[in-house]
Amino acid sequence: MSVKIRLQRHGKKGKPFYWVVAADARSKRDGKYLEKIGTYNPNTNPATIDLNLDSAVKWLHNGAQPTDTAKAILSYKGALLKHHLDGGVRKGALTQEQADAKLATWLEAKTGKVDAKKDGLSKVQADAKAVAFKAEQEVNAKRIAAAAQAEADAIAAATPAEEVAEVEASSEEAAEETNEETQA
Fold it and tell me: What is the DSSP-derived secondary structure letter of residue 14?
């Protein structure tokens, strides 16, 4: 029986969520599996991967062959490096302490890179929010200025009309007075 480390799809349509499993190569994609090794969520940025490193390395030692995507995930989390270092320990090229130290330094460097990417993404989002907020403030300021201008125009338009009405009223009174004087 050949064993594969592969992904088993879960989640709803358009929002995949995968289990990383060790399964018989002849079983269906989402069918029976031997052991669940971890999970993989590609919907987040960066992708969320939760992997039981020891279980994955155990299956690799027993001859399980990872699929291409599973191999990329195992490599990203350091399972393939640990498997490689364990091979060196078995052959006597290095001690277990040296292998553990190499793995720990590699994991620290990888964690630093992932944290830097997360910080960069959050900074980009914060910058985008700040730019959008500034643009919104400018639009609101223009809108308030336009409303104030329209109100001032309305007041200015109403004021001459009142003055014209007053002038017309005074001219009518003057005309009546002249008519009375001419008739008398």
Answer: T
Residue 2 near residue 67, CB atoms below 8 Å: no
Q: Which of 51, 13, 11, 16 is nearest to 35 (CA)?
A: 51
Residues 80-89: contacts with CB under 8 Å, at least 24 apart: 81/106, 82/53, 82/57, 83/57, 86/57, 86/61
Tell me the per-residue pLDDT of 34-58, one tens digit each, with 9 for 90 and over: 999 999 999 988 889 999 999 999 9
pLDDT band (50, 70, 90) for residue 155: confident
Contact 106, 98 (CB under 8 A): no
Token pair 């971890």 in the structure block, residue: 38
Continuous H helices in the chain: 53-61, 68-77, 79-91, 96-183
Q: Pairing mode, if any, of strands 48-51 and 35-41?
A: antiparallel
Evaluate the omega torsion of the peptide bond into residue 42 and state whether it is cis, within 30 degrees of 0. no
CB atoms within 10 A of CB 106: 14
The neighbour count for residue 49, using CB atoms within 10 Å, is: 18
